[in-house]
Amino acid sequence: MPRQSLAPSPSVVDLGILVAVLTEAVTGLWSLTASPDDGWLFVVHGVVGLALVVLLGLKFWRVWRRVTGGLNRTIAVSILLSVLAVAALVTGVAWTLGGTSPVPGLTLLVIHGYLGALLLPVLLVHLLARFRLPDRETVTERRNALKMGGLLVGGAAVWRLQQGVANDLVPSRRFTGSREEGTGEGNAFPVTSWVADDPGPIPVDDWRLAVRGAVDTPREFQYSDLPEPGDSTGDETRALLDCTSGWYSEHDWQGVRVGDLLDAAGADPDADWVRFRAVTGYRWSLPREEARDAVLATHVDGERLSHGHGFPVRLVAPGRRGFQWVKWVDAVEVRYKNDPAQWLATLVSGFD
Ligand SMILES: Nc1nc2c(c(=O)[nH]1)N[C@H]1C(S)=C(S)[C@@H](COP(=O)(O)O)O[C@H]1N2
Ligand SMILES: [Mo]
Hints:
Distance between the termini: 53 Å
Order of helices and strands: HHHHHHEEEEEHEEHEEEEH
Bound molecules: ligand MTE, molybdenum atom
Largest sheet: 6 strands, mixed
Structural class: alpha+beta
Strand content: 15-25%
Protein backbone atom coordinates (compact mmCIF):
# COMPACT_ATOMS: atom_id res chain seq x y z
CA MET A 1 0.00 0.00 0.00
CA PRO A 2 1.41 3.44 -0.86
CA ARG A 3 1.98 5.76 2.11
CA GLN A 4 -1.09 7.86 2.78
CA SER A 5 0.86 10.97 1.69
CA LEU A 6 0.95 9.57 -1.83
CA ALA A 7 -2.81 9.08 -1.81
CA PRO A 8 -5.32 11.75 -2.79
CA SER A 9 -7.52 13.10 0.06
CA PRO A 10 -10.08 10.57 1.29
CA SER A 11 -13.04 12.54 -0.07
CA VAL A 12 -11.35 12.70 -3.47
CA VAL A 13 -10.71 8.94 -3.42
CA ASP A 14 -14.39 8.38 -2.65
CA LEU A 15 -15.54 10.68 -5.43
CA GLY A 16 -13.06 9.01 -7.78
CA ILE A 17 -14.50 5.60 -6.94
CA LEU A 18 -18.01 6.83 -7.67
CA VAL A 19 -17.03 8.35 -11.01
CA ALA A 20 -15.03 5.24 -11.93
CA VAL A 21 -17.87 2.83 -11.10
CA LEU A 22 -20.35 4.89 -13.11
CA THR A 23 -17.89 4.98 -16.01
CA GLU A 24 -17.57 1.19 -15.84
CA ALA A 25 -21.35 0.78 -15.78
CA VAL A 26 -21.87 3.02 -18.81
CA THR A 27 -19.00 1.65 -20.92
CA GLY A 28 -19.79 -1.93 -19.89
CA LEU A 29 -23.44 -1.68 -20.92
CA TRP A 30 -22.63 0.28 -24.06
CA SER A 31 -19.99 -2.28 -25.08
CA LEU A 32 -22.75 -4.87 -25.50
CA THR A 33 -23.87 -3.12 -28.67
CA ALA A 34 -20.44 -1.83 -29.70
CA SER A 35 -19.53 -1.86 -33.37
CA PRO A 36 -15.96 -2.30 -34.64
CA ASP A 37 -15.60 1.49 -34.52
CA ASP A 38 -16.17 1.56 -30.79
CA GLY A 39 -12.89 -0.03 -29.68
CA TRP A 40 -12.17 2.94 -27.41
CA LEU A 41 -15.05 1.89 -25.14
CA PHE A 42 -13.15 -1.26 -24.19
CA VAL A 43 -9.95 0.74 -23.63
CA VAL A 44 -11.70 3.14 -21.25
CA HIS A 45 -13.39 0.23 -19.47
CA GLY A 46 -10.03 -1.50 -18.95
CA VAL A 47 -8.00 1.56 -17.90
CA VAL A 48 -10.62 2.89 -15.48
CA GLY A 49 -11.11 -0.62 -14.06
CA LEU A 50 -7.39 -0.86 -13.24
CA ALA A 51 -7.37 2.63 -11.68
CA LEU A 52 -10.36 1.49 -9.62
CA VAL A 53 -8.27 -1.36 -8.17
CA VAL A 54 -5.91 1.20 -6.64
CA LEU A 55 -8.70 3.53 -5.47
CA LEU A 56 -10.51 0.66 -3.76
CA GLY A 57 -7.23 -0.48 -2.21
CA LEU A 58 -6.76 3.01 -0.71
CA LYS A 59 -10.31 3.07 0.53
CA PHE A 60 -10.19 -0.40 2.13
CA TRP A 61 -6.89 0.54 3.81
CA ARG A 62 -8.65 3.56 5.32
CA VAL A 63 -11.90 1.98 6.48
CA TRP A 64 -11.14 -1.63 7.40
CA ARG A 65 -10.94 -0.78 11.13
CA ARG A 66 -14.59 0.27 11.05
CA VAL A 67 -15.56 -3.24 10.02
CA THR A 68 -13.74 -4.84 12.94
CA GLY A 69 -15.59 -2.48 15.30
CA GLY A 70 -18.86 -4.43 14.99
CA LEU A 71 -21.64 -4.90 12.48
CA ASN A 72 -24.67 -2.77 11.72
CA ARG A 73 -26.84 -2.42 8.64
CA THR A 74 -24.74 0.29 6.97
CA ILE A 75 -21.55 -1.68 7.48
CA ALA A 76 -23.17 -4.86 6.18
CA VAL A 77 -24.13 -3.02 2.98
CA SER A 78 -20.57 -1.71 2.68
CA ILE A 79 -19.15 -5.21 3.03
CA LEU A 80 -21.55 -6.63 0.44
CA LEU A 81 -20.62 -3.80 -1.91
CA SER A 82 -16.90 -4.44 -1.38
CA VAL A 83 -17.29 -8.14 -2.09
CA LEU A 84 -19.25 -7.44 -5.30
CA ALA A 85 -16.73 -4.82 -6.45
CA VAL A 86 -13.73 -7.07 -5.84
CA ALA A 87 -15.48 -10.01 -7.53
CA ALA A 88 -16.36 -7.84 -10.56
CA LEU A 89 -12.76 -6.64 -10.86
CA VAL A 90 -11.29 -10.12 -10.40
CA THR A 91 -13.60 -11.74 -12.99
CA GLY A 92 -12.97 -8.90 -15.45
CA VAL A 93 -9.18 -9.15 -15.22
CA ALA A 94 -9.25 -12.97 -15.12
CA TRP A 95 -11.36 -13.11 -18.28
CA THR A 96 -8.91 -10.83 -20.08
CA LEU A 97 -6.02 -13.07 -19.05
CA GLY A 98 -7.65 -16.22 -20.43
CA GLY A 99 -9.36 -17.48 -17.28
CA THR A 100 -12.19 -19.98 -17.50
CA SER A 101 -15.35 -20.02 -15.44
CA PRO A 102 -16.10 -22.44 -12.59
CA VAL A 103 -19.82 -22.24 -13.50
CA PRO A 104 -20.84 -24.43 -16.47
CA GLY A 105 -22.60 -22.47 -19.19
CA LEU A 106 -21.57 -19.06 -17.84
CA THR A 107 -18.33 -17.48 -19.03
CA LEU A 108 -16.34 -15.30 -16.64
CA LEU A 109 -17.31 -12.39 -18.86
CA VAL A 110 -21.02 -13.06 -18.31
CA ILE A 111 -20.47 -13.46 -14.55
CA HIS A 112 -18.53 -10.17 -14.62
CA GLY A 113 -21.53 -8.50 -16.26
CA TYR A 114 -24.00 -9.91 -13.71
CA LEU A 115 -21.79 -8.79 -10.81
CA GLY A 116 -21.59 -5.30 -12.28
CA ALA A 117 -25.35 -5.11 -12.68
CA LEU A 118 -25.93 -6.44 -9.14
CA LEU A 119 -23.49 -3.93 -7.70
CA LEU A 120 -25.38 -0.84 -8.87
CA PRO A 121 -28.47 -1.09 -6.59
CA VAL A 122 -26.21 -1.95 -3.62
CA LEU A 123 -24.08 1.09 -4.44
CA LEU A 124 -27.22 3.21 -4.42
CA VAL A 125 -28.18 2.00 -0.91
CA HIS A 126 -24.61 2.63 0.28
CA LEU A 127 -24.65 6.16 -1.15
CA LEU A 128 -28.02 6.97 0.41
CA ALA A 129 -26.53 6.17 3.82
CA ARG A 130 -23.03 7.58 3.39
CA PHE A 131 -22.71 10.00 0.48
CA ARG A 132 -21.12 13.37 1.33
CA LEU A 133 -20.27 15.82 -1.39
CA PRO A 134 -16.57 16.69 -1.01
CA ASP A 135 -15.92 20.40 -0.81
CA ARG A 136 -14.86 22.08 -3.97
CA GLU A 137 -11.42 23.22 -2.81
CA THR A 138 -10.35 19.69 -1.94
CA VAL A 139 -11.40 18.29 -5.29
CA THR A 140 -9.74 21.00 -7.34
CA GLU A 141 -6.65 21.18 -5.13
CA ARG A 142 -3.62 20.84 -7.36
CA ARG A 143 -1.98 17.97 -5.55
CA ASN A 144 -5.20 15.94 -5.57
CA ALA A 145 -5.77 16.54 -9.26
CA LEU A 146 -2.17 15.52 -9.99
CA LYS A 147 -2.51 12.31 -7.98
CA MET A 148 -5.76 11.36 -9.69
CA GLY A 149 -4.20 12.10 -13.08
CA GLY A 150 -1.22 9.96 -12.09
CA LEU A 151 -3.57 7.12 -11.21
CA LEU A 152 -5.16 7.23 -14.66
CA VAL A 153 -1.76 7.30 -16.37
CA GLY A 154 -0.70 4.37 -14.18
CA GLY A 155 -3.92 2.55 -15.08
CA ALA A 156 -3.19 3.10 -18.77
CA ALA A 157 0.38 1.80 -18.41
CA VAL A 158 -0.71 -1.33 -16.55
CA TRP A 159 -3.52 -1.80 -19.09
CA ARG A 160 -0.96 -1.81 -21.91
CA LEU A 161 1.17 -4.38 -20.15
CA GLN A 162 -1.89 -6.46 -19.41
CA GLN A 163 -2.96 -6.34 -23.07
CA GLY A 164 0.43 -7.70 -24.11
CA VAL A 165 0.18 -10.56 -21.61
CA ALA A 166 -3.44 -11.24 -22.57
CA ASN A 167 -2.62 -11.38 -26.28
CA ASP A 168 0.09 -13.95 -25.53
CA LEU A 169 -2.15 -16.05 -23.30
CA VAL A 170 -5.21 -15.85 -25.57
CA PRO A 171 -3.87 -15.37 -29.11
CA SER A 172 -7.36 -15.37 -30.66
CA ARG A 173 -8.60 -12.47 -28.50
CA ARG A 174 -10.54 -9.66 -30.17
CA PHE A 175 -10.70 -6.09 -28.84
CA THR A 176 -14.15 -6.99 -27.46
CA GLY A 177 -12.49 -9.62 -25.27
CA SER A 178 -14.16 -12.44 -27.23
CA ARG A 179 -12.26 -15.64 -28.09
CA GLU A 180 -12.38 -17.50 -31.40
CA GLU A 181 -14.51 -20.66 -31.79
CA GLY A 182 -15.07 -22.77 -34.89
CA THR A 183 -14.18 -20.22 -37.58
CA GLY A 184 -14.61 -21.60 -41.10
CA GLU A 185 -15.96 -24.94 -39.87
CA GLY A 186 -19.59 -24.69 -40.99
CA ASN A 187 -22.13 -25.36 -38.24
CA ALA A 188 -19.45 -26.30 -35.69
CA PHE A 189 -19.58 -23.13 -33.59
CA PRO A 190 -21.46 -22.45 -30.36
CA VAL A 191 -25.25 -22.23 -30.36
CA THR A 192 -26.37 -19.35 -28.17
CA SER A 193 -29.64 -17.80 -27.22
CA TRP A 194 -29.64 -14.31 -25.80
CA VAL A 195 -32.02 -15.23 -22.98
CA ALA A 196 -34.59 -17.97 -23.41
CA ASP A 197 -35.46 -18.15 -27.10
CA ASP A 198 -35.46 -21.82 -28.06
CA PRO A 199 -38.13 -22.88 -30.59
CA GLY A 200 -38.63 -26.46 -31.75
CA PRO A 201 -37.42 -27.47 -35.22
CA ILE A 202 -39.18 -25.54 -37.95
CA PRO A 203 -41.04 -27.69 -40.53
CA VAL A 204 -39.78 -26.23 -43.77
CA ASP A 205 -42.92 -27.12 -45.78
CA ASP A 206 -45.09 -24.86 -43.60
CA TRP A 207 -42.50 -22.11 -43.25
CA ARG A 208 -42.78 -18.92 -45.37
CA LEU A 209 -40.58 -15.84 -45.51
CA ALA A 210 -42.81 -12.74 -45.67
CA VAL A 211 -41.60 -9.38 -46.98
CA ARG A 212 -44.17 -6.82 -45.90
CA GLY A 213 -44.82 -3.42 -44.29
CA ALA A 214 -44.07 -0.29 -46.33
CA VAL A 215 -43.89 -2.12 -49.68
CA ASP A 216 -45.84 -1.96 -52.99
CA THR A 217 -46.43 -5.72 -53.14
CA PRO A 218 -46.11 -7.87 -50.03
CA ARG A 219 -44.33 -11.09 -50.96
CA GLU A 220 -44.04 -14.57 -49.54
CA PHE A 221 -41.24 -16.99 -50.33
CA GLN A 222 -40.96 -20.72 -49.76
CA TYR A 223 -37.67 -22.30 -48.83
CA SER A 224 -37.38 -23.71 -52.36
CA ASP A 225 -37.69 -20.17 -53.79
CA LEU A 226 -34.45 -19.15 -52.08
CA PRO A 227 -31.14 -19.43 -53.95
CA GLU A 228 -28.81 -22.36 -53.32
CA PRO A 229 -25.13 -21.57 -52.60
CA GLY A 230 -23.45 -20.75 -55.92
CA ASP A 231 -26.68 -19.64 -57.67
CA SER A 232 -26.25 -16.38 -59.56
CA THR A 233 -29.29 -14.92 -57.76
CA GLY A 234 -27.77 -15.70 -54.39
CA ASP A 235 -25.24 -13.85 -52.29
CA GLU A 236 -22.24 -14.80 -50.19
CA THR A 237 -20.58 -12.69 -47.53
CA ARG A 238 -17.78 -13.29 -45.08
CA ALA A 239 -18.69 -11.98 -41.66
CA LEU A 240 -17.77 -12.37 -38.03
CA LEU A 241 -20.35 -13.13 -35.36
CA ASP A 242 -19.22 -11.76 -31.97
CA CYS A 243 -21.42 -12.84 -29.07
CA THR A 244 -21.46 -10.67 -25.94
CA SER A 245 -20.99 -13.83 -23.84
CA GLY A 246 -17.37 -13.86 -25.04
CA TRP A 247 -16.80 -15.86 -28.25
CA TYR A 248 -16.63 -15.06 -31.95
CA SER A 249 -16.66 -17.05 -35.17
CA GLU A 250 -16.01 -15.98 -38.75
CA HIS A 251 -17.66 -17.69 -41.73
CA ASP A 252 -18.74 -17.44 -45.36
CA TRP A 253 -22.51 -17.11 -45.25
CA GLN A 254 -24.63 -18.00 -48.29
CA GLY A 255 -28.19 -16.87 -48.83
CA VAL A 256 -30.18 -14.02 -50.25
CA ARG A 257 -29.21 -10.37 -50.15
CA VAL A 258 -31.83 -8.40 -48.21
CA GLY A 259 -31.68 -5.61 -50.83
CA ASP A 260 -32.91 -8.11 -53.45
CA LEU A 261 -35.89 -9.02 -51.25
CA LEU A 262 -36.73 -5.35 -50.71
CA ASP A 263 -36.56 -4.67 -54.47
CA ALA A 264 -38.78 -7.69 -55.20
CA ALA A 265 -41.47 -6.23 -52.92
CA GLY A 266 -40.96 -2.59 -53.96
CA ALA A 267 -39.93 -1.10 -50.60
CA ASP A 268 -40.94 2.52 -50.06
CA PRO A 269 -37.72 4.58 -50.33
CA ASP A 270 -38.99 6.84 -47.52
CA ALA A 271 -39.11 3.94 -45.06
CA ASP A 272 -35.81 4.08 -43.16
CA TRP A 273 -35.92 0.83 -41.15
CA VAL A 274 -36.06 -2.87 -41.86
CA ARG A 275 -37.13 -5.21 -39.08
CA PHE A 276 -36.25 -8.90 -38.97
CA ARG A 277 -38.65 -11.06 -37.03
CA ALA A 278 -38.18 -14.62 -35.78
CA VAL A 279 -40.96 -17.21 -35.56
CA THR A 280 -40.74 -16.68 -31.78
CA GLY A 281 -41.24 -12.89 -31.86
CA TYR A 282 -37.56 -12.14 -31.25
CA ARG A 283 -36.73 -9.23 -33.55
CA TRP A 284 -34.20 -6.59 -34.51
CA SER A 285 -34.20 -3.61 -36.92
CA LEU A 286 -31.44 -2.18 -39.08
CA PRO A 287 -31.29 1.14 -40.94
CA ARG A 288 -32.40 0.51 -44.52
CA GLU A 289 -29.06 1.01 -46.28
CA GLU A 290 -27.29 -1.28 -43.86
CA ALA A 291 -30.09 -3.83 -44.13
CA ARG A 292 -29.83 -3.87 -47.93
CA ASP A 293 -26.28 -5.21 -47.69
CA ALA A 294 -27.14 -7.74 -45.00
CA VAL A 295 -27.79 -11.37 -45.92
CA LEU A 296 -30.52 -13.76 -44.88
CA ALA A 297 -28.39 -16.88 -44.79
CA THR A 298 -29.56 -20.39 -45.53
CA HIS A 299 -26.02 -21.81 -45.40
CA VAL A 300 -22.77 -21.37 -43.48
CA ASP A 301 -19.49 -22.28 -45.23
CA GLY A 302 -21.61 -24.17 -47.77
CA GLU A 303 -23.42 -26.30 -45.16
CA ARG A 304 -27.16 -25.97 -44.71
CA LEU A 305 -27.75 -24.10 -41.42
CA SER A 306 -28.49 -26.39 -38.50
CA HIS A 307 -31.63 -25.80 -36.46
CA GLY A 308 -29.63 -24.28 -33.61
CA HIS A 309 -28.04 -21.73 -35.93
CA GLY A 310 -31.40 -20.56 -37.28
CA PHE A 311 -32.62 -22.89 -40.06
CA PRO A 312 -34.37 -22.07 -42.40
CA VAL A 313 -32.80 -18.57 -42.44
CA ARG A 314 -30.90 -16.29 -40.08
CA LEU A 315 -29.82 -12.69 -40.39
CA VAL A 316 -26.13 -12.02 -41.04
CA ALA A 317 -25.47 -8.43 -39.96
CA PRO A 318 -21.75 -7.69 -40.44
CA GLY A 319 -20.30 -5.37 -37.80
CA ARG A 320 -23.19 -5.97 -35.38
CA ARG A 321 -22.98 -7.93 -32.13
CA GLY A 322 -24.31 -11.49 -32.26
CA PHE A 323 -27.61 -10.85 -30.50
CA GLN A 324 -28.72 -8.75 -33.47
CA TRP A 325 -28.24 -11.67 -35.92
CA VAL A 326 -31.85 -12.87 -35.66
CA LYS A 327 -32.28 -16.65 -36.12
CA TRP A 328 -35.36 -18.51 -37.46
CA VAL A 329 -36.52 -15.43 -39.41
CA ASP A 330 -39.98 -15.59 -40.98
CA ALA A 331 -40.66 -11.91 -41.74
CA VAL A 332 -38.81 -8.91 -43.14
CA GLU A 333 -40.79 -5.77 -42.34
CA VAL A 334 -40.13 -2.41 -44.00
CA ARG A 335 -40.92 0.36 -41.52
CA TYR A 336 -40.89 4.14 -41.18
CA LYS A 337 -39.73 4.06 -37.56
CA ASN A 338 -37.21 2.26 -35.43
CA ASP A 339 -38.52 -0.12 -32.78
CA PRO A 340 -37.23 0.60 -29.23
CA ALA A 341 -39.42 -2.22 -27.84
CA GLN A 342 -37.20 -4.68 -29.70
CA TRP A 343 -34.89 -4.61 -26.65
CA LEU A 344 -37.69 -5.98 -24.53
CA ALA A 345 -38.62 -8.52 -27.20
CA THR A 346 -35.12 -9.99 -27.17
CA LEU A 347 -35.25 -10.34 -23.38
CA VAL A 348 -38.72 -11.87 -22.98
CA SER A 349 -38.97 -13.90 -26.16
CA GLY A 350 -39.08 -17.59 -25.31
CA PHE A 351 -40.83 -17.16 -21.93
CA ASP A 352 -44.50 -18.08 -22.04
N1 LIG B 1 -34.44 -15.67 -32.64
C1 LIG B 1 -33.27 -15.53 -31.98
N2 LIG B 1 -32.18 -15.13 -32.65
C2 LIG B 1 -30.99 -14.99 -32.00
C3 LIG B 1 -30.87 -15.27 -30.62
C4 LIG B 1 -32.05 -15.66 -29.93
O1 LIG B 1 -32.03 -15.90 -28.70
N3 LIG B 1 -33.21 -15.79 -30.65
N4 LIG B 1 -29.66 -15.13 -29.97
C5 LIG B 1 -28.73 -14.20 -30.57
C6 LIG B 1 -27.40 -14.25 -30.00
S1 LIG B 1 -27.22 -13.63 -28.43
C7 LIG B 1 -26.31 -14.64 -30.69
S2 LIG B 1 -24.75 -14.46 -30.10
C8 LIG B 1 -26.46 -15.31 -31.98
C9 LIG B 1 -25.85 -16.67 -31.84
O2 LIG B 1 -25.98 -17.37 -33.03
P1 LIG B 1 -25.65 -18.92 -33.07
O3 LIG B 1 -26.50 -19.58 -32.02
O4 LIG B 1 -25.93 -19.35 -34.45
O5 LIG B 1 -24.21 -19.04 -32.70
O6 LIG B 1 -27.81 -15.43 -32.39
C10 LIG B 1 -28.64 -14.35 -32.09
N5 LIG B 1 -29.92 -14.57 -32.69
MO1 LIG C 1 -24.99 -13.50 -27.95
